Amino acid sequence: MRTLRRVLSVLVSVLLLFSISGCWNYTEVDDMSIVAGVAIDKNKADGKLLLTVELVDTNGGLDKTQAGFKMISLSGDTMFEIVRNIISITGKKLFWSHAKAIIVSEEVAREGLIKAIDWYSRDTETRSDVFIFVSGEKTAREVLNLNSTTQAIMSFELAQMMRDEKYISSAPTVEIWDFIDKLETLGNNAVAPIVNIHVKNGQKNERVEGTAVFVEDRMVGKLDGDETKSMLFVKNLITGGVLDIEDKHGTPSYSLEIISNQTKLKPRMAGGRLQMQIETMTQTGLDEVMTVEGFMKGETIQDIEKRASERMEADILAVIHKVQQEYDADIFAFGENVHENQPKIWAKVKAHWPEAFADLDVTVSSKVEIQSSAKTTRAIRLGD
Amino acid sequence: MKSEDAAINSEADGKISSSQPLSPSLDDTLALFRKIFSNDGTLRIRVIENKHSMPIRCGLIYVDGMIDRDLIQNGITKPFMAYEFTDEESGNPAELMEKIRMEVINISDIMVSTKLDELVGAVVSGKTVFLMDGYAGALNINAQGWETRAIQEPTTEKAVRGPREGFTESLFVNLTLIRRRVQNSDLKFVFTDIGTRTKTQTCICYMESLASPDILKELYSRLERVEIDSILDTGYLAELIRDEPYSPFETIGNTERPDALVSKIMEGRIAVLIEGTPFALTLPYVFVENFQASEDYYINYYFASFNRLLRVLGAFMSISIPAGYVALVTYAQEMVPTLLLLSIATARQSVPFPTIVEALLMLTIFEVLREAGARIPTSIGQAVSIVGALVLGQAAVDARIVSAPMVIMVGLTGITTLLNPRLTGPLIIVRLALLFIAFFLGIYGYFFGLLGLVIHLMSLRSFGVSYMLGVGSIRPQDIKDTAIRAPWWDMYLRPAMIGARNMKRKPSNKRAKRP
Fold it and tell me: Which residues are listed as membrane-spanning (chain B) (predicted)?
């Protein structure tokens, strides 16, 4: 009787195991279309959404070392409708977990992104760590379709670019969860990197540079690469990149490699006005001196540091003023900072924060330190 | 004659009544032996006489092939025939027998016996029975001698460094090998026989001051309860006396190496050896012993620890690879790194079978090759590996019957199994169980399977000692001989519970000092 009870309880446990399983029904990898990335456009003809998915082509077989891709475009009223209807073209269910990039056209972005990304963040099969881009070209799909000659998968290349963005700091790195998080936060506006097609010598390459500025879910303007870097300084997101500094005659001749940066935001009440004090502390290395005499003869390290600091202060102020006046979008998260550090003041300004942000008094004090001059202290000597 | 018939009848049942008295008549006794050993062509009966004073007739009974002929000739027949007995001596059979035992026969091991069953048992075990006409008793002379295999390096437990001697099929040679390593009267050999028909000699071997009396008592009581007619290898015995008879994991260890056996005895374990097999049992047996090789104790402890960790990792991989692969590829594709998923997807194109069928197919083929390799003569072994590697591996991938990643997975599974020869059997069973549960329930099922495995292992006992002894312990001495092997100067305690009777192996933590 005891044995019987034991056997029965084991059987019941095993049966229960089946009922609490998370994912029933297995899928073979060859029965699905792996999505690499997606471009969202507005269809010119009927004004509906036009979705272009980049699918990994696994039919290459054994001899091919690199997986190819294929593009499928379909328009429809809602994202999910299009996504499901694509099965009628591919014959296989789309598999979204490995998608790396969403590119939205500027047109869609200016109309509002909620309708494009809600499905993506809501669905169970999609991942929220996908990178989001705004196309700098007319449509988003032409960027995705750029590599039709080399057969390299564009979305994976874009994801790789985002991972190495920390060495350039000319575009923000934004994953979709981060984007949505900023949409939901008062006192913090969303940004997204801009992807362009870079044409030189007849060769077309994708290039990620600049920032699309959003107010709520609508894109309102752009920042270029240098402005983006200043913005990232304010947001304390700089982990690398280059500062180019003029010499005393005003020609750019020094490159400072950013080693680390620390930015502090201090919201204060000064003379009845809310003031944001920004202090940056940047450690750099002197990595390039484009003069014959070298830097010790021409100028001292202190001179270069001073000029770099002044330059940075001016750049940062300029971009803040631009954003305040032209876009009125708090992409620097000043509001959130006030909320955290001065909750009493925040309670007062919260209700009319966009206006308060535009009216915000900003002071910047930058300090650039040169730690080293890389491998050598001397200039290249010119022989005869 | 009536009693003789009774003796023969009872012999037919495999039993001889011990109350059967021996007849003083030599001819009667010889006739009785002839009857008992009827249809046995190996029985030799030799009648010899000494005629110096008055004739003394004697008989020798032995089984051919189990005695040392030279010893019988020089130790029994020659001295007996040449000895000059006086008349008075010849008159009293009892005194005469005593004189023969004390002065004539020059073989060291002689016993007097008057019981028929003892004598029959002595004859079948290779001893020589010496009978004298007119005396109702016999001498039981040990002049055993037979061919044994030479002491060779054990093939199942090879060591690059360490003793090269292995046990043989001869129990006494094996005991010699042990005794030579432990020259201490504390080492005990207790004999018994098991097998109602084979009467296989069994020896229980332990250190009196180290072995736990409780475990010893338990072992004796389990051996007493064994009821089997024959024992041909210690494997029979292990299955009959083990704990948890339904578990695939061994709870009694076996070894072919005398050095390994002695090291276990020195930890307080008990060994059981039987005649006819080079494999000795050691008990209690705990899980980590599956990963230990005797070489671990002879080589540098960093290297030994590394090897042990490899074996543990190998065992884990061997049960996890097929299940993990199937779970990842059919359920949790989002957990596979993108590029790996793409290459798996590319390789799986136009493979006709689902992943699980592929996995089962390849695993079965691997096991078939393994079993074939183990059974066939070594000279054909090469052919099997060629067939396995080329035909079934390369050709199956080229023909798109299986995908290349699956071949890699099965290859890895196979090779990691070979890291742990002691665990081969359990690993195969656990692997298949995990594979099925992973196929039905994905990663979730795989982890539940692992959990079940851990629960099962934790619940096992070997002679009252937890099978997972030391696992989960945070006392440094408990983990010094587990997945790692600590240096000898630091292993100053014997394993807990097993060596509980005398924990200290050496004064604590004394290492060599710099001069």
Answer: 270-288, 309-331, 401-420, 432-458
Contact residues of B toward A, CB < 8 A = 329-334, 338, 341-351, 354-355, 397, 404, 439-442, 444-445, 448
A218 is a domain residue: yes
Across the interface, of A26, A58, A127, the residue whose CB is closest to B349 is: A58
Tokens 């502090």 correspond to A264
Same domain, A214 and A282: no
Q: Flag if A21 and B342 touch (Cβ within 8 Å).
A: no
- Residue located via tokens 């240098």: A226
Question: How buried is residue A41: exposed, middle or buried, by Cβ count under 10 Å (0-12/13-18/19+)?
Answer: buried
CA torsion, ordered A177, A180, A186, A190, to nearest 10 deg: 100
Q: What does the block give as tokens for A384?
A: 């005869």
B43: enclosing H helix or E strand: strand B43-50
Q: Domain count for chain B, please give it.
A: 3
Asked if the Cβ–Cβ distance from A26 to B333 is below 8 Å, we say no
Bigger pLDDT: A223 or A152?
Answer: A223
Assess whether pLDDT exceeds 70 at residue A240: yes
Within this chain, do residues B199 and B347 fall inside the same structural domain, yes or no? Answer: no
Which residue matches tokens 């990994």?
A56
Could you tell me if A131 and A272 lie in one domain?
no
Q: Which of B278, B200, B285, B277 is nearest to B242 (CA)?
A: B285
pLDDT at B212 over 50: yes
A93: distance to nearest CA of chain B, Å? 13
Q: Find the residue in A nearest to B338 (Cα).
A: A98
Asked if the structure places residue A230 within a domain, the reply is yes
pLDDT value at position A262? 92
The count of other CB atoms within 10 Å of the CB of residue A94 is 20
Work out the average pLDDT over B220-230: 91
Question: What six digits make up the tokens of A260?
Answer: 């680390």
Per-residue pLDDT, A22 = 56
Q: Residue B9 above 50 pLDDT?
A: no
When CB atoms are compared, the residue of A30, A62, A156 closest to B345 is: A30
Whether A170 and A231 map to the same domain: the answer is no
Q: Tally A–B CB contacts below 8 A.
A: 77
B214 and B313 part of one domain = no
What is the tens place of the pLDDT at every residue in A92-140?
888 888 899 999 999 999 998 888 888 888 888 888 889 999 998 888 8
Last residue of a domain, which of A190, A223, A256? A223
In a domain, residue B426? The reply is yes
Do B335 and B373 belong together in one domain?
yes
* Whole-number pLDDT of residue B8: 47
Q: How far is CA B410 from CA B319, B399, B438, B486, in A?
A: 11, 18, 16, 34
CB of A59 within 8 Å of any CB in chain B?
A: yes
Confidence check: pLDDT of B334 > 80: yes
Residues B312 and B378 in one domain: yes
Q: Which of A60, A95, A156 sits opposite B333 (nearest CB)?
A: A95
Q: Are residues B273 and B308 in the same domain?
A: no
B359 and B447 co-located in one domain: yes
Burial of A13 (0-12, 13-18, 19+ CB in 10 A): exposed
Same domain for B420 and B339: yes
The answer to whether the CB of B49 falls within 8 A of the CB of B82 is no
B314 and B447 belong to one structural domain: yes
pLDDT band at B6 (very low <50, low <70, confident <90, very high): very low
Interface membership of A35 toward B (CB under 8 Å): no
ipTM of the complex: 0.79
- Domains in chain A, number: 2
Is B162 within a domain?
Answer: no
Of A204-218, A336-350, B74-88, B262-276, where does mean pLDDT reach its minimum? B74-88
Interface subset of A 305-344, CB within 8 angstroms of B: none
In a domain, B193, yes or no: yes
Q: Residue A184 has what pLDDT?
A: 87
Q: Is residue B505 part of a domain?
A: no
